[in-house]
Specification:
The longest helix has 48 residues, at 141-188. 49% of the residues lie in helices and 9% in strands. The protein folds into four domains: 2-26 and 126-169, no CATH class; 31-119, no CATH class; 190-236, no CATH class; 248-369, Glucose Oxidase, domain 1. By secondary structure, the protein is of the alpha/beta class. An eight-stranded mixed β-sheet has the order 1-8-7-3-4-5-6-2, covered by helices on one side. The protein contains 13 helices and eight strands.
Length: 379
């Protein structure tokens, strides 16, 4: 944060309007960028081998099986295996290791991203300026060395942070293997009804049951299952969001520019295939798994996030506007026409859709009921 503040001060002195410290990440080989480039190469490989048609036409969840049956798959699948060896620990939600599987364990989520890349652009904006060189050219000579050192430090810290995050994901793959073995033993002994029920237990309870073969867990699991919906409704509720003026949402201006397009409300990777070129990606948040979608979207609007978040960094690199931290964007009607002003942090719902938005907005009581019946995964 100190380095970022220093960079922001130097950018201000240089009078480089439109440049933010996050622009220093463009072109830097941090893990998410490397993985996104690898997915782009997989998409290109799919085109050259003929596997692209198989991927785009296969039913959701059946891409791997379709590739295994096709002649094109024989040429394409080795490239997938190599990619998964290097980058397959990535998951849809980084810090929920027992509610999500990695691409290595569940390749269909990777195929969803390859399909999204095939439908979209294969590269980021070609005219992005070199922020380091541009700011340096506008600073007094006495400050240029400090600027370059600050920029290099920010880039190195980002590379280190991303690499650490990926190592945590690799650790979670190992942890899931241990969890699965513990669940297998408890189910085989009749102590646990089903393997997934292990997530409803505390670690100490699991360790005690593994030691004491006669300790039943079914009643405890069932009680936790009954309580989970109510507990999660309370956990996820943030109260009624403050209402903006009619048809307007305000958020953080995370990536400058303006765009207009239909809202495509995406809640999870299972819905990635719904996003089409030119859509405005409306989502609760993004993490590195969502990166290929930025090549399709005309803009990004998210309930949470700010200038330092993944969505802001990637949106700036792809040159599309982003408005984050709106609190309630995912309550917008799917398909509604939006005007996104990433410079001012404003999202405007076209007048013809405002009545639909009012009708579709659920009251707090209904949202609690929804969360209780179909809660977000949590560890």
């Amino acid at each position: 944060m100190v380095s970022r503040a220093t960079a922001a001060w130097l950018i201000g002195l240089s009078r480089s309007a439109g440049i933010a410290p996050e622009d220093l990440y463009a072109g830097v080989p941090y893990t998410t960028a490397v993985i996104a480039a690898g997915i782009a190469r997989l998409a290109e490989r799919a085109r050259t081998t003929g596997a692209a048609e198989v991927i785009l036409q296969a039913a959701p969840g059946g891409v791997g099986e379709a590739l295994a049956r096709s002649a094109a798959g024989a040429d394409f699948l080795p490239a997938v295996a190599a990619f998964l060896t290097d980058h397959g620990a990535r998951t849809a939600r980084l810090y929920l290791p027992f509610s999500n599987l990695s691409w290595r364990e569940q390749p269909e989520e990777l195929y969803t991203l390859v399909a999204a890349t095939l439908r979209g652009s294969s590269s980021t904006r070609p005219d992005a300026p070199d922020a380091v060189a541009l700011v340096a050219s506008r600073l007094p000579a006495a400050l240029r060395a400090r600027w370059r050192a600050t920029a290099a430090r920010i880039q190195a810290l980002h590379i280190g942070r991303e690499a650490t995050v990926y190592l945590i994901e690799e650790l979670f793959c190992v942890a899931r293997a241990g969890r699965d073995e513990a669940a297998r033993r408890l189910v085989a002994r009749g102590q646990l009804p089903a393997p997934d029920d292990l997530r409803l237990l505390y670690l100490g309870e699991v360790e005690a049951a593994l030691t004491d073969h006669g300790r039943p867990l079914g009643e405890l699991v069932e009680r936790r299952r009954r309580q989970r919906g109510v507990a999660e409704a309370i956990w996820w509720d943030r109260g009624q969001p403050q209402e903006d003026s009619e048809g307007v949402l305000h958020g953080q201006p995370a990536s400058a520019g303006q765009a207009r397009g239909p809202a495509r409300v995406i809640h999870s990777p299972a819905q990635f295939s719904r996003l089409q070129p030119g859509d405005v990606l409306v989502c609760p948040y993004t993490d590195p798994t969502w990166t290929p979608l930025f090549a399709l979207a005309s803009a990004v609007v998210a309930d949470s996030g700010g200038p330092l978040s993944h969505a802001a960094i990637v949106a700036r690199e792809y040159g599309i506007p982003a408005v984050l931290g709106t609190s309630s964007a995912t309550r917008l009607p799917d398909g509604a026409s939006l005007f996104v002003d990433g410079t001012r942090g404003i999202v405007t719902l076209e007048p013809s859709h405002q009545d639909a938005a009012r009708q579709d907005r659920p009251p707090l009581r209904r949202r609690w009921a929804h969360w209780g019946s179909n809660p977000e995964p949590a560890d």
